[in-house]
C-alpha cells in the first residue's frame, strides 16, 4: 500500500472517529438531559396530583389546583396517577405486580422520599406525600414523548450529519493527501530524470525552512558532491593516463633508439641515464597517485591522536629549511592562545605533517624563495593555520581547477611539480573534518588558510 493511500485512510479514520465520538456524546447527553427533564415534569405532576386529590383543607383550593392542572398542563401520552396509602407492615407487593413495577421502587420511595423508574418508554416518578389523612405514595407515569419524538428527530439529524461528514471527510482526505504529497511526487519525477549523463540537473527548492525544502537541498548537495566526484574521477583518469604515458613513451623511445644499432659505451651510459631519470619520474608519479587514492578513504583506518599544531609547524619549518637552505619561513605566533592546549587537534601527525609541508613548500617554491609568513591561532572550536607568500599567484579563472589531480596553473611551467600536492592536501584536511581556503592574485601572492576542529583536550 502506498504512503499516499495510507495517509488518506489515516485522515479519513481520524475524521470519522472524531465525528462518531462527538455524535455519540451529543446524542447521549441530550438523551440523558431529556430523561432528567421528563422526570422533573412527572415529579411536578405527582405533587400537583397529590395536592389536588389528597388535600382536604379547602375544597375551593383543591378545585383551583385541578382547574389549573387541566388548563395549563399538557396531556401526556398514557398519563396516569396512582395513590397508595402507606400502612404499617404493608409490602406493596400486589401494587407492584399490578403496575409491573419492581417492589424495590416502592421501598425506595418510602426511604428516600422519591424514586424513578422506566420500562419500555414508560416513565414512573414516585414521591412520598404526607397528607392529613396519612402518608401516601403518589406515582405519576406517562410515555416519554420527548424520547419518542425529539430523540427520534435527533437520531435522524445525526445520521444525516454523519453521512454528510463522511463524504466531506473523504473529499478532504483525498485533497489533503494530494496536496501534501504533490511536492514529493514532483521530487520523485525529477529524481527519475537524473542519471550519470545529466548530473547537472537539480531539484527546485522553494522553501528552505520546511522539511521538503531541506530534503531537496540535502539531495542537491549530495548531487553536487557526486558530480564533483565524477568530474574529478574523469579528470584523474585522463590526466593520470597522460602523465604516466609521457615517461613510459620516453623510456620506450630511448630504449628503441639505443637498440637500433650498436653504439659507443658513453652513448649507452647517456641513454641509460635518461631512462633512469624518466623511470624515477614515473616512480614518483605512481607513488603520488597511490597515496592520493589512499587519502580518498574516510580515514577510519588511520590512527588519530592528540597533535599540537604549533609544534608540528615548527617541525615542518625545520624540515623544509634542511631540504633547501634557500627557504625562508617566518612564524607568526601573535594570535596563539595563552593556553597552549587549545592548539591541539585530533588527527594523524604524519598526514598533517605532509599536508602542511606541501602548502609551505609550494609557497616557498612559487615565491622564488622569498619570505613566507606562517600564522597560527585557535578559538574555542577550531585551530587555524594561514600561509601567505608574495609569489607568482594563480590566475583567477584557474582557481577552480587547483584541486584537480595533475592540474598546474598556466604560469608554473618553469617550476617543477606534478600537480598532486594540493589535491593530496585537501584530502588529508577533509579526513580531519577541516577545510582549506585558497585566495590568490596573479603576481600578487597566494594565501592558504587551513581550519581544523579543536581537539577539546
Topology overview:
Blueprint: H1 3-54, H2 59-72, E1 80-85, H3 93-98, H4 103-112, E2 114-119, E3 122-131, E4 134-143, H5 145-193, H6 211-259, H7 265-294, E5 305-308, H8 309-323, E6 329-335, E7 344-347, H9 349-366, E8 372-378, E9 382-388, H10 421-431, E10 435-441, E11 445-453
Parallel strand pairs: 6-8
Antiparallel strand pairs: 1-4, 2-3, 3-4, 5-7, 8-9, 9-11, 10-11
Helix pairs in contact: 1-2, 1-5, 6-7, 8-9, 9-10
Describe the structure.
The protein is an alpha+beta fold. The protein has 3 domains: 149 residues, no CATH class; 84 residues, Helix Hairpins; 149 residues, Heat Shock Protein 90, CATH 3.30.565.10. 56% of the residues lie in helices and 17% in strands. A hairpin with a 2-residue loop joins strand 3 and strand 4. The longest helix is centred in the first third of the chain and has 52 residues. It is rod-shaped and about 155 Å long. The two termini are 52 Å apart. About 1% of the residues have low confidence.
- Unreliable spans are 58-62
Order of SSEs, N→C?
A: HHEHHEEEHHHEHEEHEEHEE
Integer-rounded radius of gyration: 49 Å
For the biggest sheet, the summary is: 5 strands, mixed
What is the helix content? Answer: 55-70%
Tally the structural domains. 3
In what order do the strands lie side by side in the largest sheet? 6-8-9-11-10
Structural class: alpha+beta
* Content of β-strand: 15-25%
Average of the residue pLDDT scores: 80
Principal-axis shape: rod-shaped
Number of strands: 11
Summed up, the helix count is 10
Head-to-tail CA distance between termini: 52 Å
Amino acid at each position: 500500500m502506498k504512503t499516499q493511500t495510507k495517509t488518506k485512510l489515516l485522515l479519513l479514520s481520524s475524521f470519522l472517529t472524531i465525528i462518531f465520538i462527538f455524535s455519540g456524546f451529543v446524542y447521549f447527553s441530550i438523551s440523558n438531559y431529556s430523561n432528567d427533564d421528563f422526570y422533573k415534569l412527572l415529579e411536578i405532576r405527582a405533587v400537583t396530583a397529590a395536592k389536588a386529590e389528597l388535600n382536604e383543607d379547602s375544597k375551593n383550593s383543591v378545585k383551583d389546583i385541578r382547574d389549573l392542572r387541566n388548563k395549563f398542563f399538557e396531556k401526556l401520552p398514557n398519563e396516569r396517577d396512582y395513590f397508595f396509602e402507606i400502612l404499617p407492615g404493608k409490602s406493596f407487593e400486589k401494587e407492584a405486580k399490578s403496575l409491573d413495577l419492581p417492589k424495590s421502587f416502592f421501598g425506595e420511595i418510602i426511604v428516600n422520599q422519591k424514586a424513578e423508574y422506566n420500562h419500555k418508554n414508560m416513565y414512573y416518578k414516585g414521591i412520598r406525600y404526607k397528607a392529613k389523612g396519612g402518608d401516601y405514595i403518589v406515582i405519576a407515569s406517562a410515555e416519554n414523548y420527548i424520547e419518542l419524538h425529539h430523540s427520534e428527530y435527533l437520531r435522524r439529524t445525526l445520521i444525516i450529519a454523519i453521512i454528510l461528514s463522511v463524504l466531506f471527510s473523504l473529499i478532504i482526505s483525498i485533497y489533503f493527501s494530494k496536496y501534501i504529497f504533490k511536492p514529493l511526487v514532483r521530487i520523485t519525477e525529477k529524481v527519475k530524470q537524473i542519471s550519470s549523463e545529466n548530473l547537472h540537473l537539480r531539484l527546485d527548492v522553494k522553501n528552505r525552512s520546511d522539511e521538503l525544502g531541506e530534503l531537496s537541498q540535502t539531495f542537491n548537495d549530495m548531487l553536487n558532491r557526486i558530480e564533483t566526484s565524477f568530474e574529478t574521477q574523469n579528470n584523474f583518469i585522463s590526466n593520470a593516463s597522460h602523465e604516466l604515458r609521457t615517461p613510459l613513451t620516453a623510456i620506450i623511445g630511448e630504449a628503441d633508439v639505443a637498440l637500433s644499432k650498436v653504439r659507443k659505451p658513453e652513448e649507452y651510459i647517456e641513454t641509460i641515464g635518461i631512462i633512469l631519470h624518466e623511470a624515477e619520474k614515473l616512480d614518483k608519479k605512481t607513488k603520488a597517485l597511490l597515496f592520493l587514492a589512499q587519502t580518498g578513504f574516510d580515514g577510519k583506518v588511520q590512527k588519530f591522536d592528540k597533535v599540537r599544531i604549533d609544534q608540528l609547524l615548527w617541525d615542518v619549518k625545520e624540515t623544509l629549511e634542511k631540504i633547501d637552505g634557500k627557504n625562508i619561513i617566518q612564524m607568526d605566533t601573535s594570535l596563539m592562545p595563552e593556553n597552549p592546549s587549545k592548539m591541539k587537534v585530533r588527527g594523524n601527525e604524519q598526514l598533517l605533517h605532509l599536508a602542511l609541508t606541501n602548502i609551505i613548500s609550494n609557497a616557498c617554491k612559487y615565491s622564488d624563495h622569498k619570505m613566507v609568513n606562517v600564522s597560527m591561532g585557535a578559538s574555542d572550536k577550531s585551530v587555524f593555520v594561514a600561509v601567505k607568500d608574495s609569489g607568482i599567484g594563480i590566475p583567477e579563472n584557474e582557481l577552480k581547477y587547483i584541486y584537480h589531480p595533475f592540474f598546474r596553473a598556466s604560469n608554473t611551467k618553469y617550476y617543477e611539480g606534478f600537480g598532486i600536492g594540493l589535491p593530496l592536501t585537501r584530502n588529508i584536511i577533509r579526513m580531519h573534518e577541516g577545510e582549506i581556503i585558497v585566495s590568490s592574485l596573479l603576481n600578487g601572492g597566494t594565501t592558504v588558510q587551513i581550519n581544523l576542529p579543536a581537539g577539546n583536550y
